[in-house]
Structures
1.
Amino acid sequence: MKRKWRILNPDKKLVENISKAVNCSPLIASLLVNRGIFSPKDAHDFLNISIDNIRHPFSMKDMDTAVNRIYKAIKYHEKILVFGDYDVDGVTSTALLMEFLRHTGADASYYIPHRTKEGYGLQKSHITGVAVPGRINLIITVDCGSSSHEAVKAALDAGIDTVITDHHMVPEKLPEAVAIINPKRSDCNSGFYDLAGVGVAFSLVICLRKYLRDRHFWESHPEPNLKNLCDLIALGTVADMVPLKGENRIFTKTGLDLINSGSRIGISALIKETGSNKYPFDSEDIAFRLAPRINALGRIDHAKEAVELLLSDDPGAAGKIARQMNMMNAKRQNIEKMIVKDILEYIDNNPDTLRHGSIVLSRQSWHEGVLGIVASKIVERFCCPVIIFAEKDGFAKGSGRSIPSFNLYEGLKSCSKVLEGFGGHSMAAGLSIKTENLGLFKNEFENQVMKMSLPEDSLTFISIDHEIGFNDIDANLVDEIEALKPFGAGNPEPVFLARNVTVVSSEIVGENHRRMILSQSFGLEDKIYNAIHFNFDQDLEENMHFEEMAFRLRWNRWNGNKSIQLVIENI
């Protein structure tokens, strides 16, 4: 599908200033400006990633109260329960905090709820069924808890304190917790708004380690090197698709270096199960190879084993869990394909479904564990907000995904009277509803989308960073582009434009990928490069000439060798 292209036009003076200040090419400087990096200092920090550049998080609201309460629990051997979530961010947050607490000798355990049997977040049943029987004194939530009013009140009534660490949107009224560390609080001016849940948990650990050091705690315990936790932060941060800027960029780059060093047994076992011999692994590999396998356990079975994998120091046990993850991921893919097929067939037979600028569908037969992935795929296909429900016993649980121009959280907030509950952010949300109210919700949601959107919002855009010719491409340029990694949300991989490109040769590889040799003429000289077009639509004619081509520039690494490769984005 030909998408609409936006050719970015950065301020020339800014580009010139940054190019001179950090001694980079004007092309690279323009890429930095396109990513919102306008000052020489910001450009320097962006290109020279250092763990030493992270800001101290003690400025986060309630941080001092939280570390004081946790210190007391450690000192007096109180029972601590780390309560997490079943996605990658929640699993890595749980593993990170558990690993640190074990360093302190704390009496700590953890709990991950079952996605389909228990649902998201700390609930009253977890207090009566887990915390009270376990004689827990302190609950620390990670990647959840900001809306758990009933559960926190039940804990308080049972004499159990709660410290909440989270990054999701917060309600107007907060739970009665001892401390709520969430950079999205309206009264938190720390500047850490974009942290993932695992980043918030790590911020707590940074402050807790210092608090313990100030009280001479580490004189009797070996002080942990927190840099060794950055592999967990990289996994959760990339998987949760938060902007890879500031601390998130530092954590992810540092974590990727750790992942590639093979220092964590569980992650190495999982990489082995992917069957990839690619080196080094990057943020794209986290997003498309590691994260789906970790998530698969929580979607199809139980995410507890994912925490065990990340904490494991036994290669045999880690390998067993990694193989289980691989099997669950294959099962997840099959379930997902069947639901996507159902939806596409329904839309083909009912084209009016698209008339209101959104898609809301529900079935009893659909597996609720994969609804978020399915919704994402339908958004990619039709470029509109999508909510998919699975029905059971008079209720429906749903997952929604959106487009940048429509704030899904605000849209659901406007429909909240017919919902049993909802949570999330502008691009993704979870919700529950009585099945009898599905029709009413569908009408209200469609009206909100029509009210809050413009017709052009349904167009899909590609942002073109720079037009270049094949004679501009060389190894040095690809190296400079690689220095901008890790790529992801907030720091997209650069996309270039080339004109009048000829296909010298072409073949279909894999299921539907087109591998080519491309050339571009300059006088008497032809510049030739290898190229790949992933997920090529074979129903389209295999063009042998491209008037315009949007592409990415990468090193193609294989068996210790590397060559320049053009990855086609759109033609």
2.
Amino acid sequence: MSKQNGLLVGGVDGGGTTFKCCISTAEGEILRSERFVTARPEDTMDACSDFFVRCAKAGQPPEGIGIACFGPLDIDPQSANYGSILNTPKAGWSGFNVRNELADRTGLPVSVDTDVNGALGAEMAWGAARGAKSAVYVTVGTGIGAGIFANGDFLGRPSHPEFGHIRVTRHRDDIYGGSCSFHGDCLEGLTSAPAVEARFGPPELMAPDHPGWEIVACYLAQACISLTLTLRPEKIVLGGGLLLAPGLIDHIREQYAAMLNGYLYMPTDAVAQLIVLPGLGDNAGLLGGAKLALQSLVSQ
């Protein structure tokens, strides 16, 4: 009998704006979930712990928890600081150990990885990158990050990539200085949700034909080209709140093809199959956390 039969696990998607928690089966079926505003770290961990305690009392006790969390993050299991958030612009979170704090509150084994590694793992198991041997998940929200899987593992271990801080060529009409507190006009500084809102207003209120989307698509297309030319992944999954904008994925694909300028022969349908939205939608990170817990439990 498989060690996965009947397992229930807890998943946490730790974002800079929202934390989400779930109870999931080993097959990736979410049985219940809740979301909380990302507040003070102690208060946020209290809310997560309370969710899992209530689930246990309701007859759905998780055997372990996985956290797919914003970073930068110490994801080395051999490190004394495994699970600690490093130098983040998110006030109050630098140095906070999400793994230890949640484990202490729940008494359960807790695994941790980056939000994008978690989301990519879930997409490769149950979503848009299922069956791919190499894939990238890029999240575009409060920040920007990328999880990269190739040659049987996630790239960058025991650390992780910081793809959101690569440099991009400025759009000719963009004079914004950038929102990144470390690098100004890096990819994250020009394309994250706060950067978009700073010059165009709330993204959810921008019309589909707003000229700002052309600028956003320009930078994300450059990011996809960098990934293609360096890694040649089978799938590039673009997730995060900003990708909910109607038509943005199509603008990115169009600019991607135009910027390549025929260098790589890629028919239109091939670009659409390469650059995709998450098959798991808003649950990619949440199920990524659940998959982390599952992997940890079945490997014991």
